[in-house]
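Continuing the batch. This is chain 6 of the set; chains 1 through 5 are on the previous pages. Same settings as before, nothing changed between runs. Recording input and output for traceability.
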Amino acid sequence: MRLIEDLAAVYRDHQDPGKAAAMRAYMRDQFDFFGIASPVRRKLDKPFRDAADPLRLAQECWARPEREFQYFACDLLTRHAKRLEDPLPVLRTLITTKPWWDTVDALAANVVGPVVREDQTPMDAWIEDPDLWVARTAILHQLRYRAATDPARLFSYSSRWKHEQDFFIRKAIGWALREYAKTDPEAVRDFVTTHPDLSGLSKREALKNIGRGDEPPSA
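Output for chain 6:
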């Protein structure tokens, strides 16, 4: 695909080996980087944002070793989320390929969330998926919904995984609950109170900005 070759050329022209090493270390040496900070990268990305086939281009980006390509793909899919056709199979592949919190969370909140906003039932299968990154996506997909959040689904998903030991699942539960607490703090407090077996991490995250009702929020 010519577009991705042009994008690669732009990235190579702006690579910074020193920053690349630091970025790789921050991501636990899991990915290669050009060393381009996100604000700079997004400026470089502007000529490539209106791709005719965003899903195909995203897959091309995922095949490249440098993480900036995946970040570009996340931004591209966010931009075109509402016009993607039958994207969930491809999105699941992206979520489970080279997975880490940086791309998974971007896809969960900014792409999967908008895609299933009118019909969230596919997430009922994803929350049962044995791949923890897929389950995390299901937990986080309503992050941007605010008052449109389906609380029954949020609380059911949180309860389903409350005993999971994985840090990223526990963090996701707390984060999702904390975001909904901006809309309905009492509902979140009640859920935490009636689910004492939630992990400490999930509880702290959920109540971070609202407290338990009988104590101030944590700093």
